[in-house]
# Entry
Amino acid sequence: MTNTGGGGPRPRGAWSREVAVMVVAFAFCLLGGVIQVDDTLSAPPAAAYFVAVVSCAVLPVRHRAPLVALAATTAVGVLVPPLGLLLTPLIVAPAVITAYSTSLAARTELRAASAVLLTAAALVAAIPLSGDVSWKDASRMAVVAVFPVVAGVLGHSVRNRRAYLAAVEERARRAEESRDSEARRRVAEERLRIARELHDLVAHQITLANAQATVAAHLFDTRPEQTRKSLNELVETTADALDDLRATVGLLRQSGEAATPAEPAPGLSRLPALLESFRRAGLEVSVHQEGPARPLPPGVDLTAYRIVQEALTNVTKHAGTGSARVRLTWNRDRVTITVADDGNGSRTAPAAPTGSSTRTGSSTSTGPSAFTMPDRPPGYGLIGMRERATAVGGHLSAGRRPEGGFLVSAQLPLPPVKGTTRSTDGEAGGTA
# Structure
């Protein structure tokens, strides 16, 4: 690679083109020197060689300094008549070439046009210096003036064409980058959605399984029948977890693989089954509803279900209580979901019979909190619930209650309805 015009590297093939341009320009200059003022032909004089060598030697710098090269070739062209040579487009071929390069490389169109017009005017003005001007000289002046102007117009057209192609390529490149960025964004969103679904499924089912296994271990010696029931429920819970996990992971199937029938996305219609699963794990859940229930869009319905599921899962894992309250408040434009407990932050197992000894720890207790599990950090549950609520245009808040326990409250938008619906209080579910 060789460093040439514009300060950047140029291919070696560019030098061969430069040499070819110089050779052609040199031949034109000598051919123009053959024509004498009296319209006779003779061998090129020494002045023709001088003009050809000096003007062609300037051509290689026209890429880096086009205006300088144009001024130099124009100055040599102005010297043609005083040197006794006939000023023709052939002998000023280097000036025509630099006029093209100037229009092609100039920073502004005004500067290029001005330089080309000044070149044409200077060459035309040089003709009268050789003597009287005849009609033949006038026609020759017009031809000499036209060639640099035509070269400048051609250079301007080529420049515009290159700029247009560069703009098209840039737009295509940006469009490709935009498509790639959009594809990456959609992949990230899909991964986040699947990760959120997996978290909700695994956290819910594993928490229930852990609670049922804890009950079974606690009652193993004192209440075998209750232990057997807890183990059977544990089997059902793990089977449900595997089914839900298989359905969710099925979203990752590649095109072309055999797809299994997909179950509908869960919603509030499956809330009774969800609450029953927590009740089997020992958590008493009461449900209250205010206002008439309305159909929810699929996304909002799934979000409402997952928020209740995750909130109750956190109660099961972290709250020091065996009960929780779920309230659904239906308004004209939103549904408010609240899940509250009165716990103190440490999970306790269901009550054991008075006087029974625990299987974990060295102490014996007769109270309802005989078997205690260590508290666990809340993880990504609250983050996932907030993301779900925000994704459907809702809002979620969570925090400790002043009177004790924890409260999760979510407001989700509802489709607009005609008229005004008055809320009425009623109880949709009882205490387990």
In short: The CA atoms of residues 342 and 405 lie 4 Å apart. Residues 1-8, 254-261, 346-378, 420-432 have pLDDT under 50 and may be disordered. The first strand starts at residue 2 and ends at 3. Residues 135-218 form the longest helix (84 residues).
